[in-house]
Amino acid sequence: MSDGRDGDRAAWLDGSGAECPAETEVDHPWRLILLGAPGVGKGTQADLLHSRLGACHLSTGDVFRTAATRTDCALSPAMQQALEYMRRGELVPDTTVWEMVRERRSCLRCRGGFILDGFPRTLRQAESLKQLLLDESLTLNAVVNYELPLQEIVERLSGRRTCEQCKAVFHVTRQPSRTEGLCDRCGGRLFQREDDRSESVTVRMTAYEKSTAPLIRFYQDLGLLLPIPASGSPEEILARTLLELEKRRAWNHQVAS
Ligand code: AP5
User: Fold this and answer.
1) 39 lines ligand 1 (CB under 6 A)
2) What percent helix, strand, coil does the chain show, rounded to 5?
3) Segment 224-250, tens digit of pLDDT
4) Which of 31, 66, 136, 226 could form an SS bridge with 13, CB 3.0 to 4.6 Å?
């Protein structure tokens, strides 16, 4: 049984010098950022987009959660501190997040492209990423911003269950696993994230409004923003996203020719 972390996911999740071993070379790789409030469905869409576009799903939250479950090495003081912030629902300090992403910058060069989920989350992170992509001669194709009313977001968060091994995401009523408590993909145990408790959710929403929402304007000004309504089934949202991405690509070709 696979733990679902082979290939590109393992390189991203484990970090430190790991080279991205993805074998699929895509003609026109997509390099995307997914924006949106906590629980809007970014991880779910990143997973579906990965299956359709071949680009690696790079989630900073998954890196932290993976570190939290590691038993083979002691966590650095910075990582221990980061996990405390995460439990409370607060943002991890920019310096810690940036150090972690910089260590994994080979993942950004993946021949299949990338889908960043949960990063950047502050203007400082966005500026650092912009510079890194410039240094690496990589072009960001689009920033997808998922939009949903708060009430529905809270409903999605309260029913979320996550696989402790491969990080696949389910929902107790909307997307239940075939066997209760077990992951369909790898058989791992499903758990409820600590930061999905209501007091942490409130802190996360406040952090989003204060620090992450300004990124909408930042990417709009760069002409990269694609707003997508996040209501409906995951497949409907995926179809909406793919349509907008195709329009974006066609438009870019038109401008270039
Ligand atoms: P992170 O893991 O990035 O969490 P998040 O942004 O809060 O987003 P979530 O993972 O909660 O939600 P999602 O939008 O991915 O929704 P999902 O697809 O799971 O970050 C966690 C923490 O790490 C942060 O709070 C912070 O402390 C730290 N951190 C990470 N990155 C950082 C950074 N760059 N800077 C600073 N700190 C950082 O879906 C939610 C639920 O809804 C699931 O149950 C799913 O099954 C269900 N669902 C999804 N789509 C649908 C649908 N269409 N219909 C019905 N149900 C659906």
Assistant:
1) yes
2) 50, 15, 35
3) 999 999 999 999 999 999 999 999 988
4) 66
